[in-house]
Amino acid sequence: MASFQAQLEESADRVTVALDALLARADGPEARLASAMRYAALGPGKRIRPFLTLAAGRMLGADERGLLRAGCAIECIHAYSLIHDDLPSMDDDDVRRGRPTVHIAYDEATAILAGDALQSAAFEIMAGADTHPHPSVRLALVEGLAKASGARGMAGGQMIDMLSPQRVGDDIGVLTRLHRMKTGALISFSVEAGAVLAEAGSDARHALEGYAHDLGLIYQIVDDLLDAEGLPSIAGKAVNKDARQGKTTFVTILGVDGARERARHLAAQAKEYLALFGSSANILKDCVDFVLERRS
Amino acid sequence: MASFQAQLEESADRVTVALDALLARADGPEARLASAMRYAALGPGKRIRPFLTLAAGRMLGADERGLLRAGCAIECIHAYSLIHDDLPSMDDDDVRRGRPTVHIAYDEATAILAGDALQSAAFEIMAGADTHPHPSVRLALVEGLAKASGARGMAGGQMIDMLSPQRVGDDIGVLTRLHRMKTGALISFSVEAGAVLAEAGSDARHALEGYAHDLGLIYQIVDDLLDAEGLPSIAGKAVNKDARQGKTTFVTILGVDGARERARHLAAQAKEYLALFGSSANILKDCVDFVLERRS
Question: Rounded to a whole number, what is the distance in Å from the CA of B273 to chain A's nearest CA?
Answer without folding.
Answer: 29
